[in-house]
Amino acid sequence: MLGFMNDVAFAETQRAREVVFFSRSRNRLWKKGESSGHVLKVRDIRVDCDADSLLIRVDPIGPGVCHEGYRSCFFRSMASDGATEVIAQRTFDPEKIYAQETKDQETRR
Amino acid sequence: MLGFMNDVAFAETQRAREVVFFSRSRNRLWKKGESSGHVLKVRDIRVDCDADSLLIRVDPIGPGVCHEGYRSCFFRSMASDGATEVIAQRTFDPEKIYAQETKDQETRR
Fold first, then answer.
1. Percentage of chain B surpassing pLDDT 90?
2. pLDDT (tens digit, 9 = 90+) per residue, B57-84?
3. CA-closest candidate to residue A36, choices A62, A58, A55
């Protein structure tokens, strides 16, 4: 998954060794897994050449990272004509993991 | 590597099946490899759940993607105290690949 961090989110990620983003739509820290329990445990952090992107390798807790019920958020492939196709199988039922209220929050990030 | 695309860059990536970004600092299309020859040939494109990020899997041409001479831009690891360490070996000499002038452009993206 791809997410945004500010300096506080990054400091908290480093402290807890679990990934914390900053939600710009909700204007608050957003710990991945705060409603689902699907936290991302930091294995290691890599910094890119111009130091504005991080590649965080994680041990994901639970059956999937994506709030749509897939292991990865990148569950669709796009052909050269722009058509998309789901290429993964759901690994969990998001309705059972997220109460409707928290799911609405999660998708508004 | 992580880069920004606008709609024109994305359309050109789809057309040529080689990755084209949009450089916001230079305010122009930026085809990866335009000075180095290290183009990224598109293997497949994946779209994330909220359709604002792409994961493009590529066949990279040449010994490395990063303008610093590494295979990947993520050649440094960061410890929990923030200290960074280079964890990869250079695969090419950027001075030989980029003329100084074009290298300066490449790093200003």
1. 88
2. 999 999 999 999 999 999 999 999 999 9
3. A62
Phi first, then psi: what are they for B86, rounded to 5°? -70, 125
Coil, strand or helix at A54: strand
Global pTM? 0.88
d(CA A43, CA A54): 13
Q: Is A1 on the interface with B (CB under 8 A)?
A: yes
Strands B84-86 and B76-78: antiparallel
Structure tokens at A106: 């999660």
What residue spans of chain B are helical by DSSP H?
Answer: 7-16, 94-97, 100-107
Distance from CA of B44 to the nearest CA of A (A): 7
**Which of A2, A46, A82 lies nearest to residue B74, judging by beta carbons?**
A46
CA distance, residue A16 to nearest chain B CA (Å): 10
